Amino acid sequence: MARRIRKPAWAKAFERSFAQVTRQTLAKGARAAELALKWGAEKRKAPRGKGDWIAGVAMGATGVRRYRLYRPPDVRFDERLPLVVMLHGCGQDAKSFAQSTRMNQIAARERFLVLYPEQDRLANPQGCWNWFDTRSGRAYAEAELIVRAIDQVCLLYMADRARIAVAGLSAGASMAALLVTRHPGRFKAVMMHSGIPPGTAHSPMSAVGAMHGYRPSRPLGASPGAMAAVWPPLLVVHGSSDRVVSASNGHAAVRVWAGAAGAHAVAGRNVQRGKRYPMTVTDYKLNKGTVATLVEVAQLGHAWSGGAARQLYSDSRGPDASRLLWAFAARQFEQ
To answer: 243 falls in which pLDDT band (50, 70, 90)?
Structure first.
């Protein structure tokens, strides 16, 4: 008969500890899986409000990008609505940007479509659009995928190709401007909120310098005649207290846009609505037309002005940038 070997006390203690750690690890893993499932379900859930929250995928030779489309309620089959393209900033996605800006509520009231292209975390771990990576061509590839998403929405959901505006926050603002420089005739208006003008950076390292206002902006490659005839007007909104992207970038953006068109600044006007932060509005005019408008918001940091409270990169105390954007775009759509 085999003799039973008694385990030493230290071995029994080790086994008990190992078993306890294993149970705790499995419990934590189950909890993490449960939280991941809840997060995924919450991410797929539509933002509050009436209308449709439609998932889509844009595919091209350079990759794939998901998008979400907001469609207001009761759209007729033969109705062609304007389209506003919204490009989120770093650390955001389509849903969080929609919630922060509350653009869907304006779209429901004014009747337009809102397209939210979404950056892939494999392309950028922070969810930033790679607007700066022009040397490798990655920035241009992402811009073309956004154009593919726009084309899909125009084809499948009857968006009006003659009434398209694009806007973005931070990295999304810089991508919006880059997109327009690539396809100026596709858009009627462009808005940059807390962004950096195109041509200021060409790599991740140069982007850091540009964010702090240490790099000069290059002139846009357009003649004044072509700029005035084809390029869409630019609206820039920037906080004077932005510590992430220097407010000097907002001034640089309107200057390069106006300079390419041969436009000149008129006297700025100070505006304050209720208890919201005051803003200084400066228009750049060519003849009687507005080529660019700078809205500099006092006390505003790196956040969507007038956005929803308790949202990342959103400051409800600022003037409503979403309303400013729609009013600016609607004027261009009417021309």
So the answer is: very high
Two tokens at 41? 């379900």
Q: Where are the domains of the chain?
A: 50-333
d(CA 202, CA 186): 24
pLDDT of residue 213: 86
Closest-CA residue to 107 (of 168, 159, 178): 159
Q: State residue 4 phi and psi, 5-degree precision.
A: -80, 125
CATH architecture of the domain with residue range 50-333:
3-Layer(aba) Sandwich (3.40)
Which band of pLDDT confidence, cut at 50, 70 and 90, is reported for residue 32? very low
Q: Which helix (H) or strand (E) holds 225?
A: helix 224-230
Decide if pLDDT at 288 tops 90.
no
Q: Answer positive or negative: Cα dihedral of 217, 253, 192, 159.
A: negative
* DSSP states along 75-102: --TT--EEEEEEE--TT--HHHHHHHH-
Q: Angle 138-156/171-182 helices, nearest 10 degrees? A: 80
**pTM for this predicted structure:** 0.85
Distance between CA 290 and CA 166 in Å, rounded?
17
| Distant-in-sequence, close-in-space partners of 127: CB < 8 Å, separation ≥ 6 | 88, 90, 91, 92, 93, 119, 121
Structure tokens at 205: 């390292």
Contact 329, 122 (CB under 8 A): no
Q: Is 204 in a helix, a strand, or coil?
A: helix
Residue where the block lists tokens 């006092």: 298
Q: What is the pLDDT of residue 223?
A: 45
